[in-house]
């Protein structure tokens, strides 16, 4: 499976109110039409609250 960039993930998280849980991020990405690569990247995040888009991007970048 191809690696997804944090920027690509952020395109599907518009409208998220932070802090947000992993589940909220996944749900929003699904609503925004994210593909399976983006959803898989979000599913790999730790199950915690993320305080900002930057924190989500960092966490996704750390998964690489």
UniProtKB/TrEMBL annotation:
Looking at the Swiss-Prot or TrEMBL record, what is one Pfam family this protein matches? DUF2795
Q: Supply the InterPro entries for this chain.
A: DUF2795
This protein's name: DUF2795 domain-containing protein
């Amino acid at each position: 499976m191809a690696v997804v960039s944090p920027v690509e993930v952020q395109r599907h998280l518009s409208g998220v109110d932070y802090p947000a849980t992993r589940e909220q991020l996944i749900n929003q990405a699904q609503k925004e039409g994210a593909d399976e690569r983006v959803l898989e990247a979000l599913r790999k995040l730790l199950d915690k609250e993320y305080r900002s888009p930057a924190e989500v991007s960092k966490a996704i970048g750390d998964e690489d």
